[in-house]
Amino acid sequence: MTLPTLLRPLRPALALLITATLIGCAQQAKVTGSWQQGASRDQSFNRVLVVGVSPNASGRCDFESFMTNQIRAVGADAKSSCMYMKTTEPLTVEAIEAAGLDSIADSVMERWFGEEFRASGNVAKWHRMLIETSVEGYVGCCRAIAGADLANTTCELRLPVLGIAGSSDLSTPPDLVANTIVMIPRARLEVVAGAGHLPCVEQPEKFARFVLEFLETTKYV
Question: The whole model's pTM is what?
Fold first, then answer.
């Protein structure tokens, strides 16, 4: 399948394109197929985040730049993950342990908060909170999350569930949250427009309204 054929039906949504690359082979890479999952299966996309997988940071970024330009050429809004992972080394748990949280704090803020909130200057205290966090504790959480697969137990939930996502969340994008919500019968999803990973911080009034409506609808209050 050629790249124009793959991307021809793109419409508003968010796709995460994950591509494994071999060191030094970035410029020879070609799109030969497509991949879809869960709720995204019936959708098409016009916003794509290209993520190369390689132990060679330079090769990964070269590949992402190459693929991003190809995707943009057929009309999609594509971005390289290297734009958000500001590091010349592979972003691994071991790299965080060695360099400390200050080395990733700026890129984490971009993933946690929407553009408007970041421009307001209100992220300083959250930036400080992150870099003052125990590296050992942060890394421990990273390892726990990386090894967690709760798909089976999530499917078994039968209590009322509300999922709240930020439309600009680069950490757990709304499509990822939606794919989780559809696993739970009668679960409900709300999306806070313009918010990142912490909509309760960026737009607390809207977040609270969603929670209160859910509690009232489910007769919890």
Answer: 0.57
> Whose structure tokens read 């299966």?
41
d(CA 198, CA 175): 16
Dist CA 202 CA 112 (whole Å): 10
Q: What are the residue ranges of CATH 3.40.50.11320 in the chain?
A: 155-217
Half-sphere exposure of 125 (CA within 13 A, CB side): 4
Reading the chain (221 residues) residue by residue, the pLDDT tens digits are 444 444 444 333 334 444 433 333 334 444 444 544 444 445 556 777 787 766 566 566 767 777 877 787 777 788 877 776 654 555 567 777 777 888 889 888 988 999 999 999 899 999 999 999 998 888 888 888 877 888 889 999 999 999 999 999 988 888 889 989 999 999 999 999 999 999 999 999 999 999 999 999 998 77
- Number of neighbours of residue 36 by Cβ within 10 angstroms: 12
Q: 30: buried, middle or exposed (CB in 10 Å: 19+, 13-18, 0-12)?
A: exposed
- Longest CA–CA span in the chain (Å) reads 59
CB 126 within 8 A of CB 132: no
CATH of 155-217, one of 3.40.430.10, 3.40.50.11320, 3.30.450.20, 3.40.109.10: 3.40.50.11320
